[in-house]
From TrEMBL:
Gene3D superfamilies documented for this protein: DNA-3-methyladenine glycosylase AlkA, N-terminal domain (3.30.310.20), Hypothetical protein, domain 2 (1.10.340.30)
Protein's name in the database: DNA-3-methyladenine glycosylase family protein
SMART domains named in the record: ENDO3c (SM00478)
Boundaries of every HhH-GPD domain copy: 140-302
Domain of life: Bacteria
């Protein structure tokens, strides 16, 4: 909980087009991760887990044509390998490596999406800061609300995560899956809010922890989805949420759900394109369509957006 004793800065590369300002805007609107980072003065600070320690990444705009500048703050000197690991975590959190070229090529030929692209030029997907954070959140939100799931997730971090104080502000890193899995039943019920939800969190956390994270990020999509669906407590919504909003895999989305239908209606009017039509148009990049449609539609000028019927 002491102030930093070591700091290092480097510029992270980002696939073009990229806008750090839009990353900040998307982070500010991503309610499930509220309280897990601090945005101020056009920069954002977030704590990441490194072994048993917290390292705070301070991310701000880089030079024109580059990715953001990242300063790492730690209580001790970090090795080059440790710095690289945290930079990788930052890149995944902000979707810096996401190649949106194929999606943008299709979207620019879609009149409604082309209009949206002008308001969201350079937007990359912002995600949960770690697999552990996203897994716990999506286990908690089942049969609950976004607000309560986010609040319970913050409590897990506050009580179990390592922390670092920087300029008088305490930043907490979300704990590992192993730390959450090691909780006894009483503590897990206290965090989850009920015995049933605690049992679900345990089976989801244990099941995801048993899978190799790098394989989840890079393995064949259908095989990864099948493995997630085989975890007790993970259904279609949770599997796709983990794949897109945690692992950054856009291959498919449950477009039949109301939130995606509402997003399509806002963009295209009524009736909106069917899930089959959207999948045919965007193929294995339909997750980027869903992300842009749900994140950036409200950024359109009021006289451009199509109102969602009451």
């Amino acid at each position: 909980m002491t102030e930093r004793t070591d700091a290092s800065t480097a510029v992270s590369l980002a696939a073009e087009p990229y806008s750090f300002d839009l990353s900040l805007r998307a982070l500010a609107g991503f309610a499930p991760t509220a309280g897990g980072h601090v945005i101020a003065g056009g920069r954002v600070r977030k704590a990441f887990l490194l072994g048993a320690d917290a390292v705070v990444a301070e991310v701000g705009p880089g030079a024109p044509g580059s990715g953001p500048a990242v300063t790492l703050h730690a209580e001790r000197h970090l090795s080059p390998g440790e710095r690289a690991a945290v930079h990788q975590a930052v890149g995944r959190w902000l979707g810096l490596d996401d190649d949106l070229t194929g999606f943008l090529d299709v979207a620019e030929r879609d009149p409604a999406m082309a209009t949206l692209l002008r308001a969201a030029h350079g937007l990359h997907q912002v995600r949960f800061g770690s697999l552990a954070e996203g897994t716990v959140y999506f286990a908690l939100i089942q049969r609950s609300t976004q607000w309560y799931a986010a609040a319970r997730k913050r409590r897990v971090a506050a009580e179990l995560g390592p922390r670092l104080r920087l300029d008088g502000v305490e930043h907490v890193a979300f704990p590992s899956l192993a730390t959450v899995s090691a909780l006894d039943d009483r503590d897990l019920i206290r965090f989850a809010g009920s015995r049933l939800r605690a049992a679900r969190v345990r089976e989801v956390v244990d099941g995801v922890a048993a899978l190799d994270e790098e394989w989840l990020r890079t393995g064949p999509y259908d095989e990864v989805r099948k493995a997630l669906l085989a975890v007790p407590g993970i259904g279609t919504f949770t599997a796709h949420a983990l794949l897109l909003r945690v692992l950054g895999r856009p291959d498919d989305v449950p477009l039949e759900m109301a939130q995606f239908e509402d997003a399509a209606r806002r963009l295209y009017g009524d009736p909106p394109p069917s899930p089959a039509e959207l999948r045919a148009a965007y193929g294995p990049l339909v997750g980027w369509w869903a992300y842009y449609a749900r994140t950036a539609a409200s950024w359109l000028p009021q006289d451009t957006a199509v109102a969602v019927p009451a």
